[in-house]
Amino acid sequence: MTGQNPTSKVVQQRGLWFDEFELGTVYEHRPGRTLTESDNVSFTTMTMNMQALHLDAAYSANAEPFHQRLVNSMLTLSTLIGLSVAQLTQGTLVANLGFTDITFPAPVFIGDTLYAETLVTGRRESQSRPGEGIVTLVHTGRNQHHDVVATATRQTLVRMRPQ
Question: Which structural domains are found in the chain, ordered by start?
Answer without folding.
Answer: 18-35+72-159 (3.10.129.10)
